[in-house]
Structures are given as structure tokens and as C-alpha cells.
Amino acid sequence: MKANYILEGTVKRIIAMMVLMLAALVTCWAEVVIVPPFQDRDSGLTANDVLNATDSLINAIYQTKRFEVPDRDEQAQKLQLGEIKFQMSDWSDERKTVEMGKVLNADFIVRGVVSKNSDGTIYLFVRLLDGKTAKMLGAAERTRQNFREIREQMGGIVKELLGDIQTLTEAKREAARRYAEIAQWEAEWAAQEQREAERAAQAQAEAERVAQQMRDAWKNKRIYFGLRGGGNFGFYDVNWQDAYTTYSEGKGKVGINFAFSFLVQTNDYFAFQTELLYMHEEFEVKEQYFSRDTYFSTDSFMVPILLKGTFRPSIFSIGASAGIYFNIPLSVNYQSPSETAYGIGLYHPSLLGAMIGADFGIKAGIGIVKLDMRYAFDFGKTEFMGKDFGTRSMLLFTIGYDIGLKDRK
After folding, report:
1. How far is CA 24 from its chain centroid?
2. Cα-Cα-Cα-Cα dihedral of 392, 398, 400, 406, to 10°?
3. CA–CA gap between residue 122 and residue 373 (Å, rounded)
4. pLDDT tens-digit map of 254-307
5. Which of 20, 31, 162, 324 has minimal Cβ neighbours within 10 Å of its Cβ?
6. How far apart are CA 125 and CA 112, in angstroms?
């Protein structure tokens, strides 16, 4: 979020800097000088003489090759399009002068006044005005015998005024150059800031990716090892008879189990699991005729081979499993009112059985704490002391901890 905010602000600054640089370039274009028709102070000069004097000044300014000077017809057309009616008496109105300069896009206005003295000499007074503010920037005057001499003086008048114009123009250009340098520096700084913001955004995205990968590391492993322990409760359909009596009504008691598990996760949803499960069982059977109890306790290994379905959305997991298991008997302890037997080889459970189960786990550190519940039943009958004892089934409850050791993704 922060990186996006910085990036957005940087883009806005770059656009602003581009606008500023464009403005700086515009200030470096050739200035526009407007020369309205000279004003005649009712001295008896002909309109042709006044307009010729105006054109002479326009031509002299144009000869400098440094300014844009629209002719009188172009000026009149722009004023007409701008619906500006400007009269000689309006020169005293600074607002109207500024309005005229705005319509004509004038940087400077050269206003001339010409008159004929009583001795027949010609007097010319020229002012240089700022086209944006109508403030006077410079002035020049000449008195000559006739208009021919006046026209000959136009070059000198332009040079005299040009000094003021040149000084102002160079100052504007220098300011524009400095402004352009600042704008360029700002643009480079903004671009650098944008690059840093992009790098920060990339670093943040990478950090979030790594953090998420670390958070999900427990569920993105290919191989899992686990240890668990718990209890089990067996059921026997007893049908056993020794030399003295017949036994029935097998009742299981709570036993214990420990397991070492190995799981291979093939994808996000399926896995194969096997275990080495040690199991201690206890149960009792009742003599059919004498109503006396006989106790059994057995030790054995169970090796399940299971296909599992797994679902691990965030910090917890849900699984279901089904498969077969192999029984490996270890020892049995048999106690009845009449005899006691203990040893290996007396007790033979069915070799194969089926198992179904469900588990629930929650992430803890680098692994997962898992609660497992299963139901198992033997395919065949259990043999005890060489005779069929009955069919066994059981419930198993375990809790343990699994750790993944190899990344799958």
C-alpha cells in the first residue's frame, strides 16, 4: 500500500515536471513585439505619413531577426476576432492596454507618438511597454526636419530600445535556463524516487512471498516424518474353547500404542502413508459355564499402508485415509483361574486387515500437531494356542507431531 502511494505521487510529480519544462521551453521562444499605428497629436500630419512611420519601425524591429512582429493587418484581424475595440484614447487605460496585449499574445508593445512642430520639424516619441502589465520599460525620442530623416532614425531608435529589450530577454532566458535545469533535476529525482519505489515494492512483494512461503512451508513438503502415541480399545467376537470350558463375551480394555510414520505427499490433495505402529492390547473373556474371567494382554506391531486425502487451506489440515495393514505379533500374557501362559508363538492375529480413519491437525512451529482417529478390523480370525480365538476389531486414537523435510514446490 505504501509503495503504491509513493509510486502514484512520483508519477504525478513527473507529469508536473514535464509541464514545468514545457513552460520553460515556451519562455525561450521568440518574443512577440506589437507595434500599433502611431498616434498623431492633431498636428496636421497625413494618415499616410503616420502609417509609413509605423511601418518603418516595424521593419526596423523585424530586421533584428530576434523578434516576431505581426504586421498591422494581422494585428487588426486578431483584435477583431477578440472583439476588442481599441482607440487611441484607451492608452491611458492600463486595463485595456493589458487586454489588447493578451489578445495579441504580446510580450512587448511599442507605442509611438508623432507630431509636427510649429517650425515644421517632426517630433517622434516611442515607448516600450510590457505586454503583460502595460508598464513602461524604455523610451526614445527624435526630432528631425522631415519624415525621411525620421525614417532613417528608426534603426537607431530600435537599437536604443533593443538594449532594454535585450536585457530583459536575456534575463528571461537565463531564468528559463535555470528553471529548466531545476525542472530537469526534479524530473531526474522523481524518476529516481520512482525507481526506488518500484524496488521497494518489489522487495516488499518478495518479502511477502518469502513470508508466505515460510508460513506455508509446513504444508508444501514432499516427505513427512512423524511420532505419535495414544490409546486403543479392542473388540473380540470370541469363540474359543480349551480343554475345560468354552469362552465367550470378549471385552476390550484401553491399551496403548506408539507409532513412527512416514508420508509421501504426491500433490496438494493426495498422499501415501505407512507406519510402524506398536500396540499393547488388553481384554478379558468370560467362561461360559463357570462365569469366571480370563485376562489377555498382547504386544504386536501393525504396519498400515494408507492412501490419504488431505486438505490444508491455511494453518490447519483435515485428512481422511483408507488402506490395509499387516499384523506382526510379539508376545501374549494369558491368565485364567486355572492356568497362566506367557510367551511368543502362542498368539497369532490375522495377517491382514483393513483400516479407515480421519485426522485433524494444526500448524505448530515448522510442523503440525495432529489428532488421528481410526477403525481397524482383521480379515481373518486370531489363533491362540493353536485354536481359533475369534475376530478382532479396534478403535485407535493418537496424537503426534509431523515434520516435513523436503520441499514439494
Report:
1. 35
2. 40
3. 121
4. 889 999 999 998 888 899 999 999 999 887 776 655 566 677 788 999 999 999
5. 324
6. 6
**Alpha-carbon span 236 to 296, nearest angstrom:** 11
Reduce the DSSP state of residue 341 to 3 states and report it: strand
* Residue 23 neighbours by CB distance under 10 Å: 13
Residue 48 CA to residue 57 CA, distance in Å, equals 14
How confident is the model over 113-139, as pLDDT tens digits? 888 888 888 888 888 888 888 888 888
For 58-107, how does the pLDDT look when each residue is reduced to its tens digit (9 = 90+)? Answer: 888 888 877 888 877 777 776 665 555 666 555 656 777 778 778 778 88
Contacts of 235-238 with C-beta under 8 Å, sequence gap 24+, read 235/392, 235/393, 235/394, 236/283, 236/285, 236/382, 236/389, 236/390, 236/391, 236/392, 237/390, 237/391, 238/285, 238/389, 238/390
Residues recorded for the chain: 409
* 123 exposure class (CB count in 10 Å sphere: 0-12, 13-18, 19+): middle
Say how far apart CA 195 and CA 304 lie, in whole Å: 58
C-alpha pair distances (Å), 27 with each of 22, 96, 174, 177: 9, 24, 10, 9
Q: Rounded to whole angstroms, what are the CA distances from 98 to 110, 139, 178, 278?
A: 13, 18, 28, 103
- 138-162 as b/e, with b when 16 or more CB fall inside 10 Å? bebebeeeebeebbebbbebbebbb
Alpha-carbon distance of 369 to 381, in angstroms, equals: 35
